[in-house]
Design goal:
Elements: E1 4-10, H1 13-19, E2 36-40, H2 47-56, E3 67-71, E4 94-99, H3 101-108, H4 115-122, H5 134-153, E5 157-163
Antiparallel strand pairs: 1-2, 1-5, 3-4, 4-5
Organism: Actinomadura macrotermitis
Region (Disordered): 72-91
Protein name: DUF1877 family protein
Amino acid sequence: MAVIFEYFRAPDRGAALRLLKSPEGVPEAPGTAADSVETKRIDPTVVLGQLLAQVLGVPWDAGLVPSSLVWPQGEPEPDEDGGFAEDDPWSSGVTVEELGDVLRDGLAGIADADLPVVAGRWAGIGELGDDPDPEELTGLLGELVALARRAQGAGEHLYSWCCV
């Protein structure tokens, strides 16, 4: 089972949630409702965090890409079996996080001419698997960089929608 991450931009947390509104109350993937990039297994903390560390020339740590939970809100309250009630937002497998602007600005600062080199270095992290396709990774990086530039230009933030 692949974990899906969709990165999108919005001016604030409220606007981010409005973009993802669904009749059931669980935020839907941004899709065409927002300027977004869909990925599989490219999480903001580890995989994008390691990319950012390489770009900034600093060691990676789990706090490099700050984030704050937008949805669900509150603390999870598992039942006695360790699960969640069916109507509990935590049971949906969906989370939405606001990502720190350090990620947006780091991605936006990657020059187009450097995309293949940066993607090549990024391909070396173990979390991307044994043999990531360099062209595919360069294309994905280009999409993320373009999204970050648009967010930066509009004074917006990056958000991550995740579904397990």
